[in-house]
Amino acid sequence: MFAPKAAFSGFSVDDLGKAKEFYGKVLGLKTEEAMSGLRVVLPHGAEVWMYPKDNHEPASYTALNFVVEDIDKAVDALAKQGVKFEHYEGMHQDDQGIARGKEQNMGPNIAWFKDSAGNILAVLES
């Protein structure tokens, strides 16, 4: 029987120093250099591992989602840290970049942004 003792996700970045600065300072998450990469501790103790890749290509999908209680407050706080939110055609986003799916019965309220390596991240309202 398959019985793992733990699990974590990982993705590449082009510069570990910039990733450490972004995830640690901008997002306020605990970071630790480990296994020739960067371990980022997520809420409730989960973690993700980032590794350097010379020919890094940013993820074209949402690599990491952050669940928040109030998306407006989260977007405002991130914007104050210099985060720019993505706007996607057909997603009916407001000026802040928030797709208000709850109000339209079309999923969660969600906003997308990129990390220092161009990987797509999101905040979504619980």
End-to-end Cα distance, whole Å, is 34 Å
Instruction: Output the structural class.
Output: alpha/beta
Order of helices and strands: EHEEEEHEEE
Total E-strand runs: 8
The chain-level mean pLDDT equals 94
Shape summary: globular
Strand arrangement across the biggest beta sheet: 1-4-3-2
CATH uppermost class: Alpha Beta
CATH architecture: Roll
Number of domains: 1
Number of helices: 2
CATH superfamily: 2,3-Dihydroxybiphenyl 1,2-Dioxygenase, domain 1
Uncertain runs are: none
Describe this structure in words.
- The relative contact order is 0.20.
- The model has no long low-confidence stretch (mean pLDDT 94).
- A hairpin with a 5-residue loop joins strand 3 (37-41) and strand 4.
- A 4-stranded mixed sheet has the order 1-4-3-2, covered by helices on one side. A 4-stranded mixed sheet has the order 5-8-7-6.
- With 126 residues, it is α/β, with parallel strands linked by helices.
- The protein has 2 helices and 8 strands, in the order E-H-E-E-E-E-H-E-E-E.
- It has helices at 16-26, 71-80; strands at 9-13, 30-34, 37-41, 47-52, 62-68, 98-100, 109-114, 120-125.
- 17% of the residues lie in helices and 34% in strands.
- The protein has one domain (9-125): 2,3-Dihydroxybiphenyl 1,2-Dioxygenase, domain 1 (Roll).
Give short descriptive properties of this protein.
126 residues; alpha/beta; 2,3-Dihydroxybiphenyl 1,2-Dioxygenase, domain 1; 4-stranded mixed β-sheet; 2 helices; 17% helix
Topology:
Elements: E1 9-13, H1 16-26, E2 30-34, E3 37-41, E4 47-52, E5 62-68, H2 71-80, E6 98-100, E7 109-114, E8 120-125
Parallel strand pairs: 1-4, 5-8
Antiparallel strand pairs: 2-3, 3-4, 6-7, 7-8
